[in-house]
Amino acid sequence: MLSNKRIQELELVMEFEKVEECFKEVSSWIENVGRKRLKEMTNLDDSLEMLLQAQKRFREFDLTASEYCRRGQEALKKMDRWEDFSSVDVHSYRVKLQTYKDQLEEFCTELDENRHRICETVRLYEFFDKVREGIFCMEE
């Protein structure tokens, strides 16, 4: 039983090394591109026209970012079996895996929050434009 468990752990380590390239690529993109672009989109302009342009740029970015999130999540699913192993030899790999998982979850959450914030801000500005038009028509 011990021998079988050890073989399974070694197989997981080999599998981790294959999947780690994907983790590294996703992680690198998140740190070097994704977070920077999200920070750029934090300050939204105060006109509807500029806001709609920002929303368009965000949607383009969102397609790429969502693809990286999806790839990272698929790679994490391949590593679900790690939960069952707690030996010292596997511990360092579990720590790496948890680091990747935390980074990916944090970025995907920030992406969702920005998507929602931009959408709600556009709706609010569109509403205020309609109200402003209504007031202008009533004044005439």
TrEMBL record:
Signal peptide start and end residues: none
Q: Report which superkingdom the organism of origin falls in.
A: Eukaryota
Q: Which InterPro entries match?
A: Rho_GEF_signaling-related
Protein name listed in UniProt: PKHG4 protein
**Organism from which the protein derives:** Syrrhaptes paradoxus
Could you tell me the gene encoding this protein? Answer: Plekhg4
